[in-house]
Amino acid sequence: MEISSMFHSIMALSSPLFSSSSSPSSFPTSSRKRPNIHKFKLQSSTSAATKITTDSIPRTEAGEFQNVLTDYVSPNSSNQFPVSRNDRQSAILQIQESSDLGSALPRLGETLKVQDMNVILRYFGKLSRRQELSQVFDWMQQNQKINVASYSSYVKLMGKSLSSVEALVMYKSIKDRSTKINVSVCNALLSCLVKNGKSESSLKLFTQMKRDGLVPDAVTYSTLLAGCAKVKDGYSKALELVQELMSNGLLMDSVTYGSLLSVCASHKECNEAEKYFQKMKAEGQSPNVYHYSSLLNAYSVDGNYEKAEALIEEMRSAGLVLNKVVYTTLLKVYVKGGFFEKSKELLKELEAFGYAKDEMPFCLLMDGLVKSGLLLEAKSVFDEMMGKHVKTDGYSYSIMISAFCRSGLLEDAKKLASEFEEKYDKYDVVILNAMLSAYCRAGEIENVMSMMKKMDDSAISPDWNTFNILIRYFCKEKLYLLAYRTMQDMHRKGHQPEEGLCSSLIYYLGKTDAHSEAFSVYNMLRYSKRTISKSLHEKILHILIAGRLLKDAYVVVKDNARFISRPAIKRFAVNFMRSGNVNLINDVMKAMHSSGHRIDQVASLGKQRSQVQPEKTRPIAKQCDVLSVSNRRNTNIQNGFIQVSEF
């Protein structure tokens, strides 16, 4: 900001200012060293301040002019000109109403305190004006008008609009250690990660925060517990957090219990949910609607409607009002237990209370009917929902389209998919997958490509199911290389293909002489975090031998010889001795020997080849002679050397 504009900002304020009659001790040390600075004369006025020019301030050495100024106006200086509360409130209001924050913030922000800037931050946040919120926060960071409350408020107010990456970048930019390990700041960041579906990352970051000096509180643990509901092995991780919480001398409050009950329900730990619910009551804490609905959700795992109904009565006795979540969760219990008449009666109650204005209750019932093989009843519920013009996001369509596809009613599936396309211009990955599946099963390549284009145009990322649908379809249409490229995309996106699909694609690629592509698919599966079938190693070995990719075949044999049959290894060895890389023959011989295979015939082939290329293979011929006596002697291979000792 230009220095002159800074002075104009000061002059715009009508608050009492310093005059030349002030005691020298009231000025900064730097001004006392320069007596001429006192020519800078200000008169107190309630209407307008006397105009100040920069000519009255001496310019001594380069940079000193700015240093003198900073002593007066720096937000971190204790000698800043006092600004009245009314003036600060006026500046806050001007910034909030400004259509050009880029100019308003430098012009007015210098006169405000950090807490004033936090007021502006919360103002834009409550109005969900994310762009202005970010702009104000960035200015606060750049001008060091920021504190703990600024960081925590910003993260909370941005909500899901703040990506996990942006949140982590902001956190790493914090220089002050005390701010970085402040529990409010850390809690806000961990909550941001959990809300963005990065629960695993939040647990890892929490460990790092503790190393840096964070002292977690009950809110920290409740936040992390909520994330455990959505991660693998979440229940065991939740127990570890609870144990840590208690060892730190903290008590479980209602929020912590609520998060833990939700974790139990998500991971089908119904008995544990009951145990914690009773423990909570025994400690004198009164469960609220959220606690009851979480326990109801746990009962839905096995459709235990008797316990669910008893819990509803307990809620009524406690004077709690049953809301939409409770009724919908009870419906889920009935559906899971196969009590469809009770489900239909409860759905009518939901409609009477105005809780069935969207499709979710209908979808719960339809999904249960479909999974029980009652397709016609499910279609009847769907038609009833459509007749009542219930708001839909496409989930009901996806249930019915998928059901028709599984039942072989492809024309009905296509008809419903076309109907959705005509009526709605709103898609998500679930409905697109359902429509894609319908067209793939019907073998309509044009519609398949149309769905893929819609995904691109709508910026919808394909999920695991999308890739599986496409790969199976391309295999059915004998477009094996296209299926292979789709699997490559799937792998790059971080999705792990299932072994059955990989095995089928490997087989088809091998049949069409796409040997290197088949080996690539094998490696995708091999390096995934799962145990693969032993037979797959032998299957890829035969494909590699057929494609004369003997070096790759050697890698398969070397790493998996114990899973491969003797005939298959013998076939590999014979082919390698005849046409493999001559420099690897010795390694192949040792690999066969260490796996316990007889190598007499292979050794003779090695000697025959040495006669064709004597200058390169003479050492190999000698090695073959040594190895061929291993059936009569005790042979050990250590550190690449063959040691032979008589019995």
TrEMBL record:
<feature type="compositionally biased region" description="Low complexity">
    <location>
        <begin position="16"/>
        <end position="30"/>
    </location>
</feature>
<dbReference type="InterPro" id="IPR011990">
    <property type="entry name" value="TPR-like_helical_dom_sf"/>
</dbReference>
<keyword id="KW-0677">Repeat</keyword>
<comment type="similarity">
    <text>Belongs to the PPR family. P subfamily.</text>
</comment>
<dbReference type="Pfam" id="PF13041">
    <property type="entry name" value="PPR_2"/>
</dbReference>
<feature type="repeat" description="PPR">
    <location>
        <begin position="358"/>
        <end position="392"/>
    </location>
</feature>
<feature type="repeat" description="PPR">
    <location>
        <begin position="253"/>
        <end position="287"/>
    </location>
</feature>
<protein>
    <submittedName>
        <fullName>Pentatricopeptide repeat-containing protein At1g10910, chloroplastic isoform X2</fullName>
    </submittedName>
</protein>
<dbReference type="Pfam" id="PF17177">
    <property type="entry name" value="PPR_long"/>
</dbReference>
<feature type="repeat" description="PPR">
    <location>
        <begin position="217"/>
        <end position="252"/>
    </location>
</feature>
<feature type="domain" description="PROP1-like PPR">
    <location>
        <begin position="188"/>
        <end position="350"/>
    </location>
</feature>
<dbReference type="InterPro" id="IPR002885">
    <property type="entry name" value="PPR_rpt"/>
</dbReference>
<feature type="repeat" description="PPR">
    <location>
        <begin position="288"/>
        <end position="322"/>
    </location>
</feature>
<feature type="repeat" description="PPR">
    <location>
        <begin position="393"/>
        <end position="423"/>
    </location>
</feature>
<feature type="repeat" description="PPR">
    <location>
        <begin position="463"/>
        <end position="497"/>
    </location>
</feature>
<feature type="region of interest" description="Disordered">
    <location>
        <begin position="16"/>
        <end position="36"/>
    </location>
</feature>
<dbReference type="InterPro" id="IPR033443">
    <property type="entry name" value="PROP1-like_PPR_dom"/>
</dbReference>
<feature type="repeat" description="PPR">
    <location>
        <begin position="428"/>
        <end position="462"/>
    </location>
</feature>
<feature type="repeat" description="PPR">
    <location>
        <begin position="323"/>
        <end position="357"/>
    </location>
</feature>
<feature type="repeat" description="PPR">
    <location>
        <begin position="182"/>
        <end position="216"/>
    </location>
</feature>
